[in-house]
User: Fold this.
Amino acid sequence: MNPKAIKIEAQKEIKRVKNLKNLDKIFKKYLGKKGKIAQVFNSLKKLSEKERKKIGKETNLVKVEIDKMIKKKSKELKEKERKIQIKKERIDITRPGKKIGVGHLHPLTLVQREIFEIFQSMGFSVIQGPEVETEWYNFDALNIPKDHPARDMWDTFWLKNNKLLLRTHTSPVQIRYMEKHNPPLRIIVPGKCFRHEATDASHDIQFYQLEGLMIDKNISAANFKAIIEEFLKRFFKTKVEIQLRPSYFPFTEPSFEIDVRKEKGKWVEMMGAGMVHPNVFKAAGLNPKEWQGFAFGVGLDRLAMVKYKIGDIRLFYQGDLRFLKQF
Ligand code: FA5
Assistant:
């Protein structure tokens, strides 16, 4: 093929090419080992010497020119592709950012933390106990023997073997703690409790209690009243009214129930309390003649309900974001 014709054909193709990949194909087609220029060189040997020189020279020139054209085009295409790339990667710094949702603490956790702070400042330690309990710690050691009618006060979820249960209150931790620690002592015990009972706006089958226990040589119900009043004052940050009612718990004597109301609202039964019964000291290995003290068990959910004016306890456990986001 005539070198000039090859040049014209290559020129057309190079002009039309749109990307580097196809440009490379053109390079191979004309200047590659088996390309059109190489084919012309191969065919030279068939020609006379004169022609060979003439065509050889021409072909060499064409080769150099095609090479130049390709290099030029390659530069252009690279520049063009770079511009497209930059355009693609450009970010609009004026666009509004995406907000990342941040979670927050559950109202019951908030209330717990606040309560810890108040009691810790009065010298109480925060102690934990198991949610799955034995009959001994949940009942017997608390002076509630089997077949005693007082057991009916706590509708119990028994586990399959009928030996273990889901604790119905945080009071078993009193025994666990007194077994291992000598008085004087001051503890609070937060934790989940479970009762096999019908639910309503102020009762759920799971709820949180906070047990309190203070043991020393000369503790009286007056100490209990002072501590609980101080706690309620700091927790509600406004004046609340409380009333103590005589009550009955097998593990305290005397026993009382405490109701609380805020801003002349409804009285809410908030906690049970009393002076630790001698049989409880005995069960925990302490001498009731030597030690005395008070214990109380307050419903954390109910404290939160009065504080935040929440009408239904079940809202705490439903995971409804419309409710939770308000805290
Ligand atoms: C007790 O559980 C005793 N262990 C409290 C106690 C401790 C008395 C130490 C004396 C000494 P009671 O069953 O009344 O008592 O429960 C105490 C508080 O837990 C209640 O006042 C209430 O605030 C809360 N509570 C009880 N049952 C539920 C329930 N189903 N749902 C929500 N809160 C509850």
User: Anything to note?
Assistant: Residues 49-89 form the longest helix (41 residues).
